[in-house]
Amino acid sequence: MSASAENTTYAAPSDRSLGNNQPPARSDKPLHVVIAGAGLAGLFLGILLEKAGISYEIFERSAKIKPLGAIMCLTPNILAAIEQLGLYEELLSFSKPLRDCGYLLTDKLEHIAHFESLSPEIMGYERQLFPRPELHHMLLSKVPVEKIHFSSKVSFFEQSQDGVIVTFENNTTARGDILIGADGARSSVRQHLYKTLDKEGLLPKSDNQDMKRGFISLLGTTSVLDPAKYPDVLKEDCQSYGIVGDGGNPYTWATFTVPGNRICWNVVVQLGVNTAADEQFECSDWVPQQNQGMMDSIRHFKTTYGTLGDLFDATPIDVVSKVYFEDMLFETWNHGRTVLIGDAAHKLLPSTGAGAVNAMQDAVILANHIYDIRPTSFENIKAALHGYKAERFDAVKDQYSQTHMAARLQFGHTWWERALRHILFNWIPRSMQSRQMSKEGAYRPQANFLPQAPRRGTLDVIPQKPSKRIQREQEEAKKIATAAAIL
């Protein structure tokens, strides 16, 4: 039963608390998973559960998915799982490979640095860049339409040993065995969970802090461009240029060519460096008219294609977005039958594409632990959700610190950030950078209940943990075969 049913109601959960000493119910009934949020994490998890044969429904707060029109980069860390799900070739159809990681220039278009990737012979995959909405469209198309319910924002939920009941703002409800908060940085699931835990004295103080805001960005994707004026759009691989403002200009802007003879662009301003810029971005309403006003004030900034204004003029104003770059690593990811993934659990700065990659990696690891739940008991569910967090937290924590530093290097304008950028780009040996890229590329989790994607590249990747459920089933089958042979 789902929130799609008109004014659906359910009996309240048992009065037994989550922490009492009553024996947990055990059941062989199939699991039903309620996913709040149809972003990248929620959709990717839905596809994984579909492959695993696990019942689920996705509830999206919006009436219609309208993802940011920004550039997105997927790395080998998630491409193996995408190939495993049979989506890799389709992804390649709307993306361009980033064979060089691009160029960093001054606002006078003078060279600062050139970034290189490790060869696909080593990494196995090339980084793929594309407009974010096209990945959303692909993932959405793989989830059965009857399993996604729109205009369903979580209001509150109740959980017990018997299950979890979610109430939505449209006065409908849904019941399941597990509730997954995949509803983004402003997660309603997290807010209700934390409010409950705080009342019980179970919430760490760090989880009550506000997310840190260091940057604001305007971003968009042009309409189809004339190749005679923009010949880069015809190149097979993505042409990427980042431009850093001078000491009095707290802006950084970048361009990326994508399929369809288009260019994705973004403009980032660092807060706290220039008062006028802070006021302009902080005080403006988040509407197309105000976005246009900000675009008009910076349209003279130079790019390798002319000015930003040339790209703005080729971009429909209704696809321009304004977003905060925020970061926060929450400590509490799960309690009882509820668990958080993606931005709801960890908001990473979008300086390396790590936010989307980590959200989908969360989905992979969580799907593995959900698949292993047998029988469907409260204790087994709690253990699975705890195991997911235990397996993912250190990896995310490492990415969190790396993205924070990368954002400072790419978008930072304080004197020490400029000094650090000069040192890193001029003095760090290429061999050291290659070792770091190899280390980062080795983590490639896949669904352990599906055949693994073929091995690509020469890089040694971290071995996949086997499915405990499959191991148990194999052991049981072996015992039955041995007993039958004896008889």
From TrEMBL:
Residues 1-23, 454-475 are annotated as: Disordered. Pfam families: FAD_binding_3. Keywords: FAD, Flavoprotein, Membrane, Oxidoreductase, Transmembrane, Transmembrane helix. It comes from the Eukaryota. The keyword Membrane applies. InterPro entries: FAD-bd (IPR002938), FAD/NAD-bd_sf (IPR036188), FAD_mOase_fung (IPR050562). One of its GO terms (molecular function) is FAD binding. Belongs to the paxM FAD-dependent monooxygenase family. This is FAD/NAD(P)-binding domain-containing protein. It comes from Linnemannia elongata AG-77.
